[in-house]
Amino acid sequence: MTDQLIRRGLSRRGLLQTTAGLIGGSVLPAMPAFAEDKPIGSYPAGVSGSTAFIGISVPRTGTYAVQGEDELKGYQLAIEHINSGHDLIKKISPKTSKGVLGKELKFGVADSAAKPNEAVQAQQRFISENKAIMITGGTSSAVAVALNKLAQREKVIFVCGISGSNDTTGKDCVRYGFRQNFFGQTAAAAIGPVMVREFGKGKKAAYLTPDYTYGHTVTKSMQDFLATAGWTTVTNQVAPLGAPDYSSYLLNVANSGADVLINVNWGHDAVLSTQQAKQFGVLDKMKLVVPYQVPFIARETGGLMQGVYAATDYWWTIEDKFPLAKMFNEAFEKKYGYKPEWGAENAYVSFAHWAHMCEQAGSFNPPDVIKAYEKGETLPSLVGDVHYRPEDHQCVRPVLIVKGKQQKDMKNKEDWYDVVEIVPGEGLMQKPDAFGCHPGDYS
């Protein structure tokens, strides 16, 4: 109710005066409607005017920079569409007209460089100085986990961008954090059966794993699933984020006797390690699988993804099946000049879902918005209907399995993959408490 009055032009001071007048007139039953307007986080200060500020942190430098820029474009397009009342946003958030609850969205962007400390410092400034009503970003799961903790402490909602770690909505979940995209567990459960079907049972796997929460949890999920088909791990080569040279790791892989190389690296690390695997002759000895697909890897590896299976969040050719995907592809390509990758898609949908929840709650008050998410409402997305689990705030959504096209079969310069399967999300999910999620309090 407070937000509605503010949208109609009543100042906060005027609101307090009006409330006092109502009390003086013995209209006491109206009092409970204002009880939830007590300050929490950046609310209501951050939405007391005609705008609402969003803090965005993505890697614009470092090994994840290319993916970070794509993610940022998705955020920017979503904000533009929300502020203008675009038809696509209305398909996802029907109550949105222009802005969220009538507030024009403003935003700031910080370069996280995929470093948790830098992301937290930037978002803390957005909260303190700009009264950010919501923060978003990620790309690195280490960043996402750190922002989870910041959001819970500051009582400001964090809508996670790209994050593949099981921990983000597992042991490091928080009441104030939400994630829309797929993650290690769902990737493994989706691509594992395809690998067993294509390569057989009882195979030997070698892993290239980045040394942080994303890498370790994705590798663990893959190992756990493949073990059910008799697969064994002959080597797990763990490298630091941003490693410039994978030669020592690849030498161990080459000598391991593995049938399949499972490259869990992400961003430029995935590109570099795949290119070097080819140079070292590893890809001549064994099959390559990318269980958590990296945006732009097909383009950047110069065709090394031909015939390679990967799990991904989104691929633009599903526009033939999903009308909202077609609307998004057309709007994105018109603005940016290329087909959207899954980082942009995920950012856009996450933002649209947040707008929807604010509109459903009728308020920016964080506990009200959180409870709107926790109703588990069926929501439109670019990959069909989805919903958020109240227990861990993870979106239940399909995972796409793609296979790299041979160059001769590509219809255009961005036609890198065939979509092999769209795997429904419900059957891919672990039980809500399986990874230790205890989200914490609302206030």
Description:
- With 443 residues, this protein is α/β, with parallel strands linked by helices.
- The chain has 3 domains: 2-37, no CATH class; 51-183 and 317-397, 3-Layer(aba) Sandwich (Rossmann fold); 185-316, Rossmann fold, CATH 3.40.50.2300.
- Helix content is 40%, strand content 16%.
- The chain contains 15 helices and 14 strands.
- The chain has helices spanning 2-7, 12-24, 65-84, 87-92, 116-130, 141-154, 184-199, 213-227, 247-254, 267-279, 282-285, 297-300, 323-336, 342-361, 366-373; strands spanning 51-58, 104-111, 134-137, 157-160, 177-179, 204-210, 232-239, 260-263, 287-290, 309-312, 387-388, 395-396, 399-404, 417-423.
- Strands 7-6-8-9-10-13-14 form a 7-stranded mixed sheet, with helices on both faces. A 5-stranded parallel sheet has the order 2-1-3-4-5, sandwiched between helices.
- The longest helix has 20 residues, at 65-84.
- It is globular and about 65 Å long.
- Residues 1-35 have low confidence and may be disordered.
Short description:
This protein is an alpha/beta fold and 443 residues long.
Number of strands: 14
Q: Which CATH class of the largest domain is shown?
A: Alpha Beta
- Please give the CATH architecture of the largest domain: 3-Layer(aba) Sandwich
Largest sheet: 7 strands, mixed
| Helix-residue proportion | 25-40%
For the largest sheet, list the strands in their spatial order: 7-6-8-9-10-13-14
**CATH-assigned fold name of the largest domain:** Rossmann fold
**What is the number of helices?**
15
User: What are the segments in which pLDDT stays under 50 over at least 5 consecutive residues?
Assistant: 1-35
End-to-end separation in angstroms reads 20 Å
